[in-house]
Amino acid sequence: MSEQQMQFRVGLLAIVAFCLAAVMAVKFGDLATLLEDRYPLAVHFDHAPGVYPGTPVSKNGIVIGEVAAVIFDDQHGGVLVALSIEPQYRLRKDAAPHLSRSLLGDSSIEFVPGSGPGWIEPGARLEGVSPVDPMKLVADLGGRLDRTLAGFDATAAQWSEVGRNVNGVLGDNREELNIALARAAVALEETALSMRSLRQTADSASKLMGDPALQQNLNRTMAALPPLVEETRQTIVATRSAVNRADATLANVEGFTRPLAEKGVSVATRLDVTLANFEQVSGDLADLSTMLKKKDGSLAQLASDPSLYRNLDASAENLNLLLANLGPVLRDLRVFSDKIARNPELIGVRGALRGSDGEKTVR
């Protein structure tokens, strides 16, 4: 084999090896993702154990992307995980990223599907749910178990002390306990008798309620209740109206009595003067009554002597007759005065010397 053939074979072997390496890199290195137009998302976790670039991102158990980078969030604290999501998978706005870890320590980010409207925009920042550390749970559980066991120890000690106290009480007060038990037995027997009496009472009540006549009376009473309630309501309304009218009347009375209260002094003074006058009039009436009681008085004579009354009656009749007779005289005087007024010469020398035309003159 010549040197040229050897070089050709070595070169051919190198080309085949390079091609195999390229095929393996494409096959197992998932280099096809470099050619896809993925969209980024940022997820904030309080802590993200086991997360590194390349950690799978899934939804409903199907891988939809991977972690592109993991950085510390100095502004808000925690860890900011950059995701690279394949373009054919879209996430709703209420989808929640959860960081989960397997028993072997492998981590993955699982999106819980949402059902709300709208889609997550590329480059959006989401709040993720950090996983629960099993070791921390075990440690917390251990602390709680220690506290629980300590509480059990204290409770057991207290129950031991209670048992000793009960034994002491039972030993010291056995006779009193026997008496108490006997009384309890008597009380139980009386309770049983009371229960039997109560049962008999209930049976009697059941029989009584089962009486058709009683049921009919109850139905009649229940039927009469609505009219009674209506009448009661009307009575209440009428009472309220009467109370309102009484309030209005009291208000009017108050308006009437307020001026009296304001002028109380003057009103009292006037009442005092009026009562004094009334007292004086009462005294005068008493004097008049005393005078009437005197038999020799004029008023008593007028009240008791009928002749005085007859004389007064006759005087009144004569006065009426006199007035009746004075009527013609007054008419004659009127005619005479009229004639004198017309002919004054009838009553003197002057009238005889000086004639008159018969007309009245006014001076």
TrEMBL record:
Alphabetical list of Pfam families matching this protein? MlaD (PF02470)
Name the domain of life this protein comes from: Bacteria
Tell me the leader sequence span.
Answer: none
InterPro entries given in the database record: Mce/MlaD, MlaD_Phospholipid_Transporter
In what residue span(s) does the Mce/MlaD domain sit?
39-114
Recorded protein name is: Mce related protein
**Native source organism of the sequence:** Alienimonas californiensis
What taxonomic classification does the UniProt entry list for its organism? Bacteria, Pseudomonadati, Planctomycetota, Planctomycetia, Planctomycetales
